[in-house]
């Protein structure tokens, strides 16, 4: 079986209009026995968006052969015979991205596709639709791969490739099950989040993963240009400083912010959850997992936008009835890595305080299980905690962490695995992880390690979450495919 490997300010990515029966063929071509006759194109960038149980967006740009770009996609369950009736025409955005929405698909089914409309698909171009929401995958497990601050590829460094290969090696040794979802924690393209930096740091590094696995990103400070130093609250204030040598000039924008031009994200609850009305933050469902991506860089800095995001988050979490809930954002509430969660850093890191003071109580009240951030170039994993909204010196493990049988903070491992309903009878604790080590590890700050964190290590790597009906296991995997930390939550 092949599984798929990976108001506020409204983003302006063009919504696609193609569908599985949108084609220009005559009646004979529509016969399922007739295959497509186009020519396959090797796109400069190719990725999947918004995969659900019955639909997916295929998005691409460019042609590495320098010829005309593709204008359509053919798809089907037989790699060697893509039916002519599947031909779907693309919509082209202002920044030259082509995208099609394939709809009416069957759940948990492997489909192959050809960008350009050839009758035969490249074996690397396939995806597997999600289970019906609430149901488990056929193998019982959802695998989620998480990388943070991986954008060093934009400066020609190989570290993010090492991290990618570490995950691949680990997966191969674990039965070769690929990822179902690929989550990115921001700072995906250094230094300024330009379109060109996204090409070298994202599309040139994760090429094979992106062709088979839906990618779900969140916004980091480097997505806003300004060498990562922006304190603006609007994507309209995106600015490239200096000579732009690593990325400019960008294509004519749909939005001034390349991140919003590149990704097509579900502002209208296209894949579950509640509509947010903006691509800056959103939620979606996969199998029995609900995932929320928050905007800790822009919306969080404006009072009205932050209030709207907080209310949407509460409403979204209250409406969620799936087994597991994961939240991603960029700025970590508990860190002593390259950023210090006790310091605002002249306003650049103010969102750290806001996440800790205003958002972690929401996570803990409404049943979030695990929360992931980047920003700090380190791996740090907290205890299973509740109620820590102050500076690091105020953390009290005896009152804020889940305790074991000896009244010591539990590790989440072995016979100290966490339970979703804690010993107090409430689902009110969260494990907070910093995984900003997907492209570089740098330094620590005064007070390292943060007292809320049970495990902290300056080591390149990524996180893998495996989820079934009653168990969530999160593993920190290094560049060699070795697990350096893990924990389990059961329900």
If you had to describe this structure to a student in words, what would you say it looks like?
With 491 residues, this protein is of the alpha/beta class. The chain has two domains: 1-129, Immunoglobulin-like (Sandwich), CATH 2.60.40; 142-490, 4-Layer Sandwich (Purple Acid Phosphatase, chain A, domain 2), CATH 3.60.21.10. Helix content is 14%, strand content 22%. The chain has seven helices and 22 strands. It has helices spanning 159-173, 195-203, 207-210, 258-262, 303-319, 350-365, 397-400; strands at residues 45-49, 56-61, 72-76, 88-89, 91-92, 98-102, 110-115, 126-128, 142-147, 181-184, 215-217, 282-286, 289-293, 324-328, 370-373, 379-385, 418-419, 430-435, 453-457, 461-467, 471-478, 483-490. A seven-stranded mixed sheet has the order 11-10-9-20-21-22-17. Strands 12-13-14-15-18-16-19 form a seven-stranded mixed sheet, with helices on one face. The protein has a four-stranded antiparallel sheet with strand order 1-2-6-5. A hairpin with a 5-residue loop joins β5 and β6 (98-102).
What's a quick, concise take on this entry?
The protein is of the alpha/beta class.
Q: What letter string, H or E per element, gives the SSE order?
A: EEEEEEEEEHEHHEHEEHEHEEHEEEEEE
- Strand content range: 15-25%
Main beta sheet:
7 strands, mixed
Strand order of the largest sheet: 11-10-9-20-21-22-17
Number of strands: 22
Q: Portion of residues in helices? A: 10-25%
Q: How many domains is the backbone divided into? A: 2
């Amino acid at each position: 079986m092949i599984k798929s490997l990976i108001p506020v300010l409204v983003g302006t990515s063009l919504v696609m209009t193609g569908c599985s029966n949108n084609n220009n063929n005559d009646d004979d071509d529509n016969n399922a026995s007739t295959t497509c006759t186009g020519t396959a194109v090797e796109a400069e960038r190719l990725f999947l968006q918004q995969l659900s149980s019955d639909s997916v967006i295929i998005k691409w740009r460019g042609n590495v052969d320098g010829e005309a770009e593709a204008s359509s996609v053919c798809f089907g369950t037989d790699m060697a015979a893509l039916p002519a009736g599947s031909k779907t025409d693309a919509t082209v955005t202002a920044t030259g991205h082509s995208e099609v929405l394939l709809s009416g698909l069957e759940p948990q089914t492997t489909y192959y596709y050809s960008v350009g409309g050839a009758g035969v698909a490249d074996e690397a171009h396939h995806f597997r639709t999600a289970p019906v929401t609430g149901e488990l995958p056929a193998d019982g497990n959802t695998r989620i791969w998480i990388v943070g601050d991986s954008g060093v590829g934009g400066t020609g460094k190989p570290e993010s490739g090492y991290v990618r290969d570490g995950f691949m090696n680990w997966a191969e040794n674990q039965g070769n099950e690929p990822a179902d979802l690929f989550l990115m924690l921001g700072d995906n393209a250094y230094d300024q989040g330009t379109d060109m930096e996204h090409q070298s740091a994202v599309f040139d590094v994760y090429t094979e993963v992106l062709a088979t696995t839906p990618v779900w990103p969140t916004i980091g400070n480097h997505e806003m240009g300004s060498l990562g130093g922006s304190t603006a609250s609007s994507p309209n204030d995106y600015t490239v400083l200096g000579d732009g040598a690593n990325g400019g000039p960008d294509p004519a924008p749909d939005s001034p912010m390349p991140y919003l031009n590149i990704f097509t994200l579900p502002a209208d609850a296209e894949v579950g959850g509640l509509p947010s009305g903006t691509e800056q933050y959103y939620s979606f469902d996969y199998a029995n997992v609900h995932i929320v991506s928050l905007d800790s860089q822009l919306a969080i800095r404006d009072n009205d936008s932050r209030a709207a995001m907080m209310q949407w988050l509460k409403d979204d979490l209250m409406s969620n009835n799936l087994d597991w809930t994961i939240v991603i954002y960029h700025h970590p509430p508990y860190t002593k890595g390259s950023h210090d969660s006790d310091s605002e850093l002249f306003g650049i890191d103010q969102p750290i305080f806001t996440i800790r003071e205003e958002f972690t109580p929401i996570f803990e009240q409404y049943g979030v299980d695990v929360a992931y951030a980047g920003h700090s170039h380190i791996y740090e994993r907290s205890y299973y905690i509740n109620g820590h909204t102050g500076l690091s010196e105020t953390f009290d493990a005896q009152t804020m962490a889940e305790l074991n049988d000896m009244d010591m903070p539990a590790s989440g491992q072995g016979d100290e695995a966490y339970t979703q309903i804690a010993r107090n009878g409430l689902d009110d604790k969260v494990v907070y992880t910093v995984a900003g080590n997907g492209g570089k590890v740098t330094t620590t700050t005064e007070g390292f390690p943060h007292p809320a964190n049970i495990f902290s290590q300056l080591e390149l790597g990524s996180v893998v979450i495996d989820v079934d009906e009653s168990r969530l296991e999160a593993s920190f995997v290094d560049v060699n495919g070795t697990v350096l930390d893990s924990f389990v939550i059961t329900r």
